[in-house]
Design goal:
- It is built from 3 helices and 9 strands; from the N terminus they run αβββαββββαββ.
- By secondary structure, it is α+β, with helices and mostly antiparallel strands.
- A 9-stranded antiparallel β-sheet has the order 1-2-7-9-8-4-5-3-6.
């Protein structure tokens, strides 16, 4: 297994990386809160990032089709726009995330919106919306443009997996995330990512 940093240094970076303090979000977050990370390594095919622990609001969906993803993200958006027990509007954040976990021939699919570390979440009116926490760790990232779709995400996921195999990197082959940072009204210069988790 090839690594770009010793394990101990990776752990040290997680400890020293402050949640939002002295961290400037990249331009593709468009001025909104987004997950804190450090870029560990880059090459022409992927970027290696070290993420801090993050909070999300999440709901499960039937599939990664555009229709199911759109319906799930709309449900989460409605929650942030006062469809909660306090009638409160929550801060806009980035990214929206589609997560796919494969178990045999089945897939568990969910959509999530990032939650800033200082945000106090009201109870959702829809019980299918849950708060989730993703632990910090190393994620390999491929950036791509275009209007997001299931096919585009799957194609870029396969390209990223091939690049990681070529680089001799070990990764979780049964899980990936697709992250979108732009409004659906944005038609050009979109910033999309696929994430694959290190093992």
């Amino acid at each position: 297994m090839k690594t770009t940093l010793p394990f101990a240094l990776s752990i040290l970076l997680v400890v020293l990386l402050p949640l939002g303090e002295s961290w400037e979000a990249p331009s593709f977050c468009h001025g909104y809160e987004c997950p804190v990370f450090s870029v560990i390594n880059t090459n022409e095919n992927f970027e290696e990032r070290l993420y801090s622990s993050t909070r999300w609001i999440t709901t499960n969906i039937a599939s990664a089709s555009e229709q199911d993803v759109g319906a799930g993200l709309w449900k989460l958006y409605q929650y942030t726009q006062s469809q909660n027990n306090e009638g409160r509007t929550l801060p806009t954040t980035r990214p929206g995330l589609v997560s796919v976990i494969k178990t045999g021939e089945n897939e568990q699919v969910s959509v999530s919106l990032y939650v800033g570390p200082d945000t106090v979440l009201p109870k959702a009116n829809d019980e299918s919306i849950k708060e989730t926490t993703r632990p910090g760790g190393t994620i390999y990232v491929k950036v791509f443009s275009g209007l997001p779709s299931e096919t585009l995400a799957q194609d870029n996921t396969q390209k990223l997996m091939e690049a990681l195999r070529t680089a001799g990197v070990l990764f979780d082959e049964n899980r990936y995330d697709a992250a979108g940072y732009d409004s659906m009204l944005t038609l050009v210069n979109r910033h999309n990512e696929v994430w694959i988790h290190a093992v």
